[in-house]
């Protein structure tokens, strides 16, 4: 499956452009004069400039070089920073609501508690960036590449991302309520206690991610890859809808899947011990070798699932439904044709 374009891979491999420090650092007043005069910003070097608290709302800084510039507390509402070089820039507490950063480089940047609500960060690169507590609600993150980014306690409600890369990202207690992910690669992401309530993930990969205590209530998961090495311990997936997802070998001990619907999902060899599965439905799922000891599965429906070699020791299965007659020895391939018409 092609998660993202070859151009995106190039951005992962290509080192950031480094420039020597400028001999003269323009002051905020000088920058405002240039903008007022309509001077083109592309290629202008403001590296290391002290721009703390400057107001540049709506300014066109497309192509500007702002490496290591200090923009703490600045106001850049609606500013245009397309293809700007912002390596190592400090945006702590800055207001960049509605700003356009498309194609910009923000490697090594800091944006603690910055406001990036509704900002466009399409094609942005932010490797090793540190944005704790940043507000990226309603942000556009298509082809956003951020290996090793820190998003601890950040808010990304209703953000949209296609072909985003978050390898080794750290987002403990981050919030993604109502977010939309399409073909996102978040391998080994550290997202304990993250909030993905009502989020929709399609064709995404979370393998090796740390998701302990995360919340996925009423989320929609389609084609998710989150197999062995992914830790969902104690996660809340109540009411989740998942189709064609791969959880094979993942750890879901103590998770709450009650009331969820999991269609054609692979839970083979999963650790589902002490999980809550009350009234959950598992049509055409594979639970071969899954460990469900001490699970609570009252009213759960496993009737069209394959549960052979599953460990139900000590599980509460009152009212639960199990395999169709004659299917106890089947394997997953046997039900593939039957599953094609499943809702």
Which regions are unreliable across 5 or more consecutive residues at pLDDT < 50? Answer: 19-25, 325-343
Measure the end-to-end span. 23 Å
From the spread of the alpha carbons, the general shape counts as elongated
The structure class reads little secondary structure
From the alpha-carbon coordinates, what is the Rg to the nearest angstrom?
Answer: 24 Å
Beta-strand content bin? 5-15%
What characterizes the major β-sheet? 6 strands, parallel
On the 0 to 100 scale, the average pLDDT is 88
- What is the number of helices? 3
Helix content: under 10%
User: Strand order of the main beta sheet, please?
Assistant: 1-2-3-4-5-6
Annotation, overall tally of beta strands = 6
**Which sequence of SSEs, written as H and E, runs from N to C?**
HHEEEEEEH
Protein name: Pentapeptide repeat-containing protein
InterPro entries: 5peptide_repeat, Pentapeptide-BTB/POZ_domain
């Amino acid at each position: 499956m092609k998660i993202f374009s070859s151009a995106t891979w190039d951005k992962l491999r290509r080192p950031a452009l480094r420039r020597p420090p400028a001999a003269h650092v323009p002051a905020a007043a000088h920058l405002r004069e240039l903008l007022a005069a309509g001077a083109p910003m592309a290629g202008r070097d403001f590296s290391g400039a002290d721009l703390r608290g400057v107001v540049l709302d709506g300014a066109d800084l497309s192509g500007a070089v702002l490496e290591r510039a200090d923009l703490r507390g600045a106001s850049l509402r609606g500013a245009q920073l397309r293809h700007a070089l912002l390596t190592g820039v400090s945006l702590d507490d800055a207001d960049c609501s509605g700003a356009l950063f498309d194609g910009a480089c923000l490697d090594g940047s800091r944006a603690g508690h910055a406001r990036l609500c509704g900002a466009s960060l399409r094609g942005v690169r932010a490797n090793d960036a540190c944005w704790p507590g940043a507000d990226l609600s309603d942000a556009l993150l298509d082809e956003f590449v951020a290996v090793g980014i820190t998003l601890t306690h950040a808010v990304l409600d209703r953000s949209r991302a296609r072909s985003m890369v978050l390898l080794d990202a750290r987002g403990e207690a981050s919030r993604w309520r109502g977010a939309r992910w399409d073909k996102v690669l978040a391998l080994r992401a550290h997202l304990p206690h993250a909030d993905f309530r009502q989020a929709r993930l399609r064709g995404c990969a979370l393998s090796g991610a740390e998701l302990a205590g995360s919340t996925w209530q009423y989320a929609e998961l389609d084609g998710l890859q989150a197999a062995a090495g992914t830790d969902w311990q104690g996660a809340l997936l109540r009411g989740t809808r998942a189709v064609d997802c791969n959880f094979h070998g993942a750890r879901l001990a103590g998770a709450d899947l009650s009331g969820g619907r999991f269609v054609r999902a692979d839970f083979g060899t999963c650790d589902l011990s002490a999980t809550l599965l009350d009234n959950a439905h598992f049509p055409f799922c594979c639970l071969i070798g899954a460990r469900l000891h001490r699970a609570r599965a009252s009213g759960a429906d496993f009737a069209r699932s394959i549960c052979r070699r599953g460990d139900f020791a000590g599980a509460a299965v009152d009212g639960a439904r199990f395999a169709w007659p004659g299917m106890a020895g089947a394997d997953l391939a046997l039900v593939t044709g039957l599953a094609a018409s499943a809702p």
